Amino acid sequence: MQRAIDLLGLFDESRPALSVRDIVSASGLPKTTVLRLLGTLRANGLLWVDEHGRYLVGPALLRWSRLAEQVWRLPPAARVVLRDLAVEHRETVHLYVRRDVHRVCIAQQEGPQSLREVVRVGDELPLWAGGAAKALLLDAPESLLRRVAETSPHGIAHLETLRAWLDEARACGYAISHGEREEGLSAVAVPVRGRQGAVVAALSFGGPSARFGDERVRCFADGLQGAAGELARAGLPFEV
Fold it and tell me: Which residues form the IclR-ED domain (predicted)?
């Protein structure tokens, strides 16, 4: 099953159609294994073959996509919160949840400025760096921090850096990052806490570092903290 999921993960916006040769090369699996998995995925409508013999994502995924959109769609009041944030602070707003050692963007509202960070709904990013990652890890146990550090380019040595970042975020009440994941990009993020007080999501602004000076960072943090409280009161569809 994991191998089949890995094959589906090869398809994205930049590679919407793949040949068998492409899939074998990208997956590193034997061709006989790839053909068997492709046959199963195609039989279940998860993959489709076009007129050139290339594989595309299949129509069965439309139903799952519709279901996921229904489950993860923010309530109207929460969508208004994100829209108002982007308008007031003129930066793109993202809402993330944690998936194991990754973070996934489940909602966004683009800011009005043409130069902005591009993270789309559904994009999966690492947890070893970035403002939103720190906000999501504020209550994380040591075992999770260790696993996150091991996924970083620095390996387990990154654990001490993660601890220091989280101590700083707890002291400030918000997390910041400058060029940690990609040079020239900065972020400010706060946790969104659920009914039991646990971190269930992270709300963040992201954009060019030139627009994230100290004064604006404090202003962003104030706006995000107020909005996080509003989101918690509005209720999030995935919170249990």
Answer: 60-237
Statement: 2-63 belongs to CATH 3.40.190.10: no
What does the pLDDT look like over 90-144, one tens digit per residue? Answer: 999 999 999 999 999 999 999 998 887 888 898 999 999 999 999 999 999 999 9
> What is the residue-wise DSSP string for 94-120?
EEEEEETTEEEEEEEE--S-SS-----
- pTM value is 0.85
3-state secondary structure of 23: helix
CA distances from 6 to 9, 11, 50, 134 (A): 5, 10, 21, 27
Domain 73-234 grouped into CATH 3.30.450.40: yes
Among 224, 240, 237, smallest CA distance to 134 is for 224
DSSP 56: E
Overall residue count recorded for the chain in this entry: 240
Radius of gyration of the chain (CA): 20
